[in-house]
Amino acid sequence: MRVALFLTCVNDTLYPDTGRAVVRLLTRLGVDVDFPMAQTCCGQAHYNTGYRHEAEPLARHFAEVFRDYEAIVTPSGSCGAMVRELYPRMGERARAEGRGDTLAATLAPVVPKTYELTEFLVDVLGVTDVGAYYPHKVTYHPTCHGLRGLGLGERPLRLLRAVQGLELAELPGAEECCGFGGTFALKNSDVSAAMGADKVRNAESTGAGVLCAADNSCLMHIGGTMTRLRTGMRPVHIAEILASTEEEPAV
Amino acid sequence: MSSRERILGRVRRALADVPRDDTPYERAVARDYLREHGERTPEETVDLLAENLADYRAVVHRTDAAGLAGVVAGLLASRGASSVLVPPGLDAAWLASADVTRVADRAESTPHELDRVDSVVTACAVAVAETGTIVLDGSPDQGRRRITLVPDHHICVVRVPDQVVSSVPQALGRLDPARPLTWISGPSATSDIELDRVEGVHGPRALDVVLVG
Amino acid sequence: MSGTFVGMPAFPEAARDAVRDTTLRGNLRHATHTIRAKRAKAVAEVTDWAELREAGKRIKDHTLRHLDRYLEQLEESVTAAGGTVHWAADAGEANRIVARLVKETGESEVVKVKSMATQEIGLNEALEAEGIRAYETDLAELIVQLGEDRPSHILVPAIHRNRGEIREIFAREMGEWGRPAPEGLTDTPAELAEAARLHLREKFLRAKVGISGANFMVADTGTLVVVESEGNGRMCLTLPETLISVVGIEKIVPTWRDLEVFLQTLPRSSTAERMNPYTSTWTGTTQEDGPRTFHLVLLDNGRTDTLADEVGRQALRCIRCSACLNVCPVYERAGGHAYGSVYPGPIGAILSPQLRGTGSAVDASLPYASSLCGACYEVCPVAIDIPEVLVHLRERVVEGGPVTRAGNKVVLQPAKGHAAERAAMRAARWAFTRPGALRAGQRLASRTRRLHPRTLPGPGRAWSGTRDLPPVPAEPFRDWWKRTQGGKGGAA
Fold first, then answer.
1. Interface confidence (ipTM) of the complex
2. Pick from B179, B182, B201: CB nearest C197
3. C 224-263 → A contacts, CB under 8 A
4. A221 — contact with chain C (CB < 8 Å)?
5. Cα–Cα distance measured from residue C382 to residue B167, given in angstroms and rounded to the nearest whole number
6. Which residues of B touch C283 (CB under 8 A)?
7. Which of A190, C280, C340, C454 could form an S-S bond across to C362 if both were Cys, CB 3.0 to 4.6 Å?
8. What pLDDT shows up at residue B26?
9. What is the model's pLDDT at position A251?
10. How many CB pairs under 8 A join A and C?
């Protein structure tokens, strides 16, 4: 199976450890992973801020870079949802604007074969115990696009429950948005910060040392709030937990 | 141009992009939802009605035809009611044991006059088990809408199991939209203070439902 | 819409004050969390919720698609049943019609059932200017009216008030409007409800004119439906001699049977009940039962403009249940007033900029008043994809384009104030379609990473005023991949 890692621009630039963890994890599970160097950005920030037409070249670029792979795996719920939910919509809108089927046809091949990491593990590889070891108390925050966009459901929790040494603490108000929301964090920073602070207080109340999620954008916001509020908790991407083993523990 | 023509013209222009579709309405909307939730015997349906009425603070009483007059009289007496509004077509036997002044439901009565009456006794058109609802349709045994509104105490008699349906879809099928309908699910209530339910505002604060089998 | 909202600041500024108001935050948190859990329970009771939701969506879509036909049918059936139908293209016309109808009765006061449409057009203020006093009779509307306040929630306009504040308002203001609050009134909800009962009773009993909205209008029978809890609706709909209902044209359903969907989904979504205490339906006038005269005012006021937008028109499916408000994390913290409209919360953020256009500061900012978390879409009983419409309206703000205003097609210019953002988006698009440029930028960031502050000056404070920035790593992932061939060779 030719599997491409779509790391996302944010992870590539700011969270290379997450990328390395995905590669390590998938390689350990026998998957041959490629990282197409031409990849950049799915266009989510453009699209969601109202710049759909600026997002179109990025979507086309994405489709060209990834079209020949059998599966495209991304450790980001929101970028995964961008491809799966919003690429088809971009195609429809272009059609409605009288620009024909070209965009829809270009984007269509990559849509069904794009998977968020935990989806790929559970649905495609059929594993929930990935042989991980992570001796920490962890609470899990389901990010909105993963939860309501992609419908990840219990998948991440099933994976976490199978991790040796990991103590899972239920997060109060887990399904409530952390307040990141892309440019929302800047345009409505007061409300965003208030949501972030509530999320962090809920996380703190679990007594866990680690808050885990499947999207580093949300973790950037939650983690930045954690250090500002001096909580002593840290944000960790789920890939880094699942990649961690007794022999090679995550730092 | 009249506003009627202006608005209809705007609607037509607004829909210019929508492809023509002449599918008859019966086929245009799929109705995959249930006609009722779960299978129940008629007795179980009546039980569910009683349960849901009580859940919304209606007080439920069960009796048979022979016991009805006694139950109604007892309910009026326990409220200390001295006057009761009576719809023109109410079975006189229902009030046979009650020692109260009967006030007829008349078009000339003012709201203030109705406000001085203690209780009202009516039948109903249909009752809905799943939602704990009784529906009045203004038939002669139910009277004008206002008589079940202004007095603070309403006794509603439901003939079971004939008048009971399971669900909202079944109830609508039994009702005549040309009649003025009042659907009642418990005494009046509000959620306006901190989004929590409190019973008892403008409508009758006491609702007794008598299930007659 | 209502004059009381003119000159509202943009959403972020209004929300800033609300976020810092700890009483308001506490009130909203308490109320929305109470109802959230109850709604979930009420919905879970119905095993076919998904099918009911889909049917509700389809009924509404079908109606909107043939709205002209159903409006004509409704007019015909209401008229045949003894009612009189009026058409109002905008708020001003609706207010003039209602004021004229009230004056024709010779009365100078009216009792009102809670109605979003009459709030939207500012009817009370318009009637006041004509010397007609309008008494709000819904408990929450009464709290707002007595407190000279603005509504902040669709279902519970006084949600921003807690019981203690309500007690204060009743004790202080009821005497000015009629029967004073009882001596020694406490803040228990039951006593507050009793005070409202006593205060309003004299008004109901003497009222000659009632004004309402409607939750549904049935085209084939001419039936109107009002769904309520307190009985104030029944009072206003049955005791007066004249009833005037002001209803948005999108409130139509084609057939009587269609109510079987909405009478199941609306109560569970709004008050989290299996069924609300009272639902009234009436068809024209009835001999010797209820009002002798019935007027229906059909209101456009921006609805046909909304209908012209193929993405935005789904907002017209709304049945005003307010489930989206109760579940919205932004609404919970910003409060309803920040939305500058009688329609707050997620639905307001897509309805107000469509009904009113995006000309004002607050309307242009509303499409951004969301983190796009999708909780609103999930609970919506008619499946309005609110995030989709929000993003669509953002596009309208930053890109401009063709829209319909007051029935005329116009082309909007891109909004001012987005120039820097637009330039940044274009630059990012340029870099992201050239992997080499992205890589150069990443390398520059990595090489200068020790110089990066954890907080930012100027506009960057929007982030770093409350959150630290993540450190920039020594090398981006793509450099590691290239250097190690994906960890297979070279130094990890």
1. 0.97
2. B201
3. none
4. yes
5. 20
6. 177-180
7. C340
8. 85
9. 66
10. 205
